[in-house]
Amino acid sequence: MSRARLDDYRGCHCGSRVDRYGYFAGCSIPVRLNSYELSSRKVLNKLGVELVDLQGVSCCGMPIERVDHESFIFMVAKALAEAERQELNILTLCSGCFGSLSRGAAYLSEHEEEREKVNESLKEFDLTYKGTSKVRHLIQILYRDVGVRRIESEVKRKLDVLRIAAHYGCHPLKPHNIVEFDDPEEPHSLDELINATGATSIEYMDKLQCCGSPILAADENLAMKIAKSKLDNIRTAKADAVVTICPFCELMFDGMQIAISDKFKENYGIPALLLPQLLGLAMDIRPAELGLNANKVSTERILGRLP
Amino acid sequence: MEPDLDIPEKIRPDPSFMEEVLKEPDGEKLRYCFNCGTCTASCVVSRHTEKYRPRMILHLVSLGAKEAILRSKEIWLCAACNTCGERCPQGVNIADGMNVLRRLAIKHGYVPASIRALVSRILVHGRIYEVDEFVEEERQDLGLPPLPSVDKKFIEKLSEKIHSKSPSIVGSDGESK
C-alpha cells in the first residue's frame, strides 16, 4: 500500500463501527501498568473512540500457546466469542494479547474442524465463535481509524524539542500475513504518530529489534543483555526518550532500566514513555492524568523542556 | 535448571520424532525447512548468545535427536519476535516451530518450573497475575472501571483440558524430568 493510501485509510471494517471497541484488558496492564490504560483512555476519549468493557474475558491465552494448542485455541475462541456476543470488535493495548488473539483467530479461520470442536466446548457457555469480531491493537486504531491529521489537529503543545526513539516491538507488525498492518521491515506508523506531536522520531541502530522481555523467565541475564543493546543504541543516537506500544516493552525499558543499568554498570537515565503518554502531553493533558508519576525512570528531564 | 542442548556425538535417529512434530498443530510446516540459516541470521537471541541457533535446532529435529531437544533449555529461549517467520524463504514460522517443540517437551514431561508456576496462576486466578484488592483500589483511585470478573466455570473447563492433554503440568514444585 502506498503511504498516501495508508494515511487516509478509514477502516475496511465492512460496516462495523470504527469508533467503538470492546476493551480487552489482559493480565499485565491492570496489575503492573495502569498508566497505560489510564493514558490510553484519556487520549482515545479526546479522539472520539469509545471503549466498552468486555465481560467474561481474562487471559488471552498467550502463555498457554506453548503448553497445549487445543487449550490455547479454547481461550482465544472464548475471548473472541464474548466480544461477538456483545457485537464488538476488540481493542487491546497489549502486543502479547494482540499477537495471541490474532494468531488464534487466523488458525481458527483456516481449520474448520478445530472451529467445530471449540464450538462444542463453548456450548455450555452459550457462546458460538463465528470469526466476526476483529482484533485491533491501539496503534492500528490511532493510525488507521483516527489518523495522523486528526491527531495533529488535537495538538495544543508542540513537542518539537524532543528526539524520540520509537520502539515498535514485535507483534503489531509480525507475522505480516496475519496482522496485515504497516511494513514489518520498514514500518512508519509509529514514527508518523510521534511526528504528529511535533517531536522527531529518529533513526537508530537495530530500531526494530525485540526488547527481550519474552525470555525473562527462561534466562533473565540474556533478556537484560538484549534490552541493554537497545538502550545503548538509543543513547548513542541521542534520543531524549524511548516510546513503546506494549506493556512488556515498557516494563523492560522503564521498570527494569535501573536493574539493567546496575547490572552492566551503566547510567542510562532514558525516560521511557508509552505512546498515549506522549500523545497526551501534546494534547496538553496533565502528566498526572497520564500516569507519568508512575514511570520509574524520571520524566523530569523532558517535562522540564516542554513549552 | 534445564540442561543445555547437549548434542550427542552419535545421534541415534528417531524418525518417529519428525512424524510426531509434523502432527502437532503448526508442526506440518516444518517439513519445508531446507536449512538455509536465514532464521538464525535474523534472530535477536542468536545475536546475543552462542547457545541458541534455531536453524540447528530444526536440523536436529529432522535428524531425530528427540531427547536432546525436548529436555533442552534452548527451545525455551525463543523470544517469539517472529522475525524468522517473516523472512524464511520457505514460509516456515520458526517461532511457531519452537512452540511446537515446547508443547511436545511438556507432553513428554519436561516442564520448566517457571511454566508450571505460570500455568498454575492462570488456573487459580484466571490471569497470570492475581487481581487482588490492592489492584482494584489502585484502579479505583485512578478512575478506571472495575475489571471483568473471571469466568470461573471457564477456568475450570480450561483446567480440565490442560490437565488431560498435558498431565505432567501438575506436579510438585521443583525439577521437571
* Mass-distribution shape of chain B: globular
* Total count of strands of chain B: 0
Measured by residues with Cβ under 8 Å of the partner chain's Cβ, the largest interface is: A-B, 60 and 56 residues
> Unreliable runs of chain A, pLDDT <50, ≥5 residues?
1-15
CATH topology grouping of the largest domain in chain A: Rossmann fold
- CATH structural class of the largest domain in chain B: Mainly Alpha
- Termini separation of chain A comes to 37 Å
Tally of extended strands of chain A?
Answer: 8
The chain-level structural class of chain A is alpha/beta
Features:
heterodimer, A: 307 residues, alpha/beta, Glutathione S-transferase Yfyf (Class Pi), Chain A, domain 2, Rossmann fold, four-stranded parallel sheet, 15 helices, disordered N terminus, B: 177 residues, mainly alpha, Fumarate Reductase Iron-sulfur Protein, Chain B, domain 2, 2 domains, 50% helix
Q: How does this model look, in words?
A:
The complex is a heterodimer of chains A (307) and B (177). With 307 residues, chain A is an alpha/beta fold. Chain A has two domains: 16-137, Glutathione S-transferase Yfyf (Class Pi), Chain A, domain 2 (Up-down Bundle), CATH 1.20.1050.140; 156-303, Rossmann fold. Chain A is 46% helix and 9% strand. Chain A has 15 helices and eight strands. Chain A has a four-stranded parallel beta sheet, with helices on both faces. A four-stranded parallel beta sheet of chain A has the order 6-5-7-8. In chain A, helix 7 (138-146) packs across helix 8. Chain A is globular. The two termini of chain A are 37 Å apart. By secondary structure, chain B is mainly α. Chain B has two domains: 15-107, Fumarate Reductase Iron-sulfur Protein, Chain B, domain 2; 113-169, no CATH class. Chain B has helices at 15-23, 38-42, 44-48, 54-63, 66-70, 83-87, 94-107, 113-125, 133-141, 152-165. The longest helix of chain B has 14 residues, at 94-107. Chain B is globular and about 60 Å long. The model of chain B is unreliable at 172-177 (pLDDT under 50). Classes of the chains: A alpha/beta (307), B mainly alpha (177). At the A-B interface, helix 2, helix 3, helix 4 and helix 11 of A face helix 3, helix 6, helix 7, helix 8 and helix 9 of B.
